[in-house]
Structures are given as C-alpha cells and as structure tokens.
Amino acid sequence: MALVELLERRRVERPGDDFLCVGGETWSAARLADRADACATALAAAGVQRGHHVALMLENSADFLACFFGVAKLGAVAVTLNPALRGDTLAYILDHSDARVLVLEGELAGAAAAAIDGASRLETVWARGCGAGHVALEEQLDWRRAAPEPVERRPGECTAILYTSGTTGRPKGVMLTDYGYERASRWFVEGLRLSEEDVLHTCLPLFHVNAQQLSLCGALTCGARLALDRRFSASGFWRSISEYGVTSFNLIGAMLGILHAQAPRPRSALTVYASRACRRCRRRSTASARSGSASCSSTAMA
C-alpha cells in the first residue's frame, strides 16, 4: 500500500475518529488529510511535480504530517531534515538533495539564511509560525482549494530521503520507498500485536525513520491513535503516557537509563520498543513496568 493511501484509508473508513494527539489538540484523520490536501495543492501551485524534492525542516507537529503526506500525494519526494542542522552541513544537504522547496520553522530562518542562499535549486521557502521574510506556511495550508488527485508511484520509486548524521564524513541521503514504509509498519504492528485499541506514543523526531515508519505508519496500519510529543522530556514523559492513555511507546536506549533513574511511580501496562541503540535488549514482551523505572523488555531493530 502506498504511503498516501494509509491516511486516505483512515479518512474514508473512520473519518471522525481521533487519530492524532499533539500540542494539546486532537486531530481526526479527516482533518489531517484535508490539511495534507491543502499542502499538496499549494505545492502544486508552486510548481512541484512528481519526483521533485521538498525539504521539511520542522519540529514534531500536525503541520509536519500534513506536509509529509501532501508531498507524497504529488508523487514528490520528502527530504526530512533535522531542525538542529546549521552551517556547512545544512548548506551541503540542501544543495545535495536538489530540494526545490524548503518548509522550515520560522524561528530557524535566520540561522538557515546562508544555507538557503547557497542552495542552487531551491526556488520556494515557506516558514511556519513566523514568516521571517518568507511566505508563511499557515497561509498555504489554510487555503481551501480543490486537491489534486494522488499520483500513483511506480514500484521502487523514491518516497523520501533521510540523511545520515555525517559522523564519518559527509551526510548520506538514504532513499526510502512506499514498500519500505509498508513492510516496516506491518512488521512492527504484527510483532507487537498492535490493534485499533492501542494508543501509540513517540517523542522521537519525525524527521527520523523510527517515528515515520513505526509510530506514524504503524498507527495508520492497525487503526490505533498516535500521541505525539515535540521532544523527549524526562520530567514530562510519564505524564504524557498517563494523559494520553498510551499502551505502546517507542524510544532509544539512552532514554531508558534516564527514565530508570527517576523515582518509581504507579504501575501501568506498557509495550516498550527500543531501537538498536539499546544493546542489551534483544527481545520484546508486554510488561507491567513501573512508570519511571521500566525494565527494558523490548525488541532491537534488525
């Protein structure tokens, strides 16, 4: 199933059901899909076509998801970037990725100005929250125009490009396909036996493959709700888990140590999924973990 079809299926089958909880606001699949349609329409008006690259440099938010699915609807390629990128590294990635459009947080526009100026193929910049001299993203997403028909990708056609951190050299662009998103999300859902009764949570960044393929696409695949925090907060983590009624969350190994060091709290049944960064954990179970001192019963990514 194509990436864009995951959200569209949810909109058709369960349009009014709560799908996304983020920033103190709840979004139905229909509302999010409508915003993705608005993004696709605005991008098309800006000249984006099948195969063009659109860079997203956004924090975890509903707007990130709207842009991500809007790009997919056009058959374009989402280049999801770490908002912390600066200087030469950002300049290199913007140029190397052949991005024609950049959507970024408005607060980053000043720091990214030199990199934007040096991007040879960049034609359009939208800024979220604060224009900072650029077109405001909200103006594009709030327009109500007829949405374009979704483009059907060919097998193996690139859906997204994610860049490595560049610790051993220049960052490398990793090309992902619709098939990869579908297989990873199904593997995740089937392995953890997730269903529409679950509430998935992630505070991992949406520019990364874990949050994209497992949390986001996993929730859409099994019909679950997705609770999204902007970033990891040791002091606020268990409060989010409790408030959202989370049954499964994703993390990296380092987060376990931080959470384990906190004072014990009431027990709750949680499914914990850790990435390969958690070297000592090689299996998964559904555990009754003490909030704040959860034992790491988790599956390492293959």
Structure description:
The protein is of the alpha/beta class and 302 residues long. The protein has 2 domains: 29-177, Rossmann fold; 179-290, Rossmann fold. It is built from 10 helices and 14 strands. The strands form 2 sheets. A 7-stranded mixed sheet has the order 2-1-11-10-12-13-14, sandwiched between helices. It has a 7-stranded mixed sheet with strand order 7-6-5-3-4-8-9, with helices on both faces. Helix 8 links the parallel strand 10 (199-202) and strand 11.
SSE layout and pairing:
Layout: H1 3-13, E1 18-22, E2 25-28, H2 29-45, E3 53-57, H3 62-73, E4 77-80, H4 87-96, E5 99-105, H5 113-118, E6 124-128, E7 135-136, H6 137-141, E8 158-163, E9 173-177, H7 178-192, E10 199-202, H8 209-222, E11 225-228, H9 237-244, E12 248-251, H10 253-260, E13 267-274, E14 287-290
Parallel strand pairs: 1-11, 3-4, 3-5, 4-8, 5-6, 6-7, 10-11, 10-12, 12-13
Antiparallel strand pairs: 1-2, 8-9, 13-14
Name the structural class: alpha/beta
How many DSSP-defined strands?
Answer: 14
Order of helices and strands: HEEHEHEHEHEEHEEHEHEHEHEE
Strand content: 15-25%
The side-by-side strand order for the widest beta sheet comes to 2-1-11-10-12-13-14
Inertia-based shape: globular
CATH fold type of the largest domain: Rossmann fold
CATH class of the largest domain: Alpha Beta
Summed up, the domain count is 2
Low-pLDDT residue spans = 276-302
Radius of gyration: 19 Å
Query: How helical, in percent, are the residues?
Result: 25-40%
> Average pLDDT value?
86
CATH architecture of the largest domain: 3-Layer(aba) Sandwich
Biggest sheet statistics: 7 strands, mixed
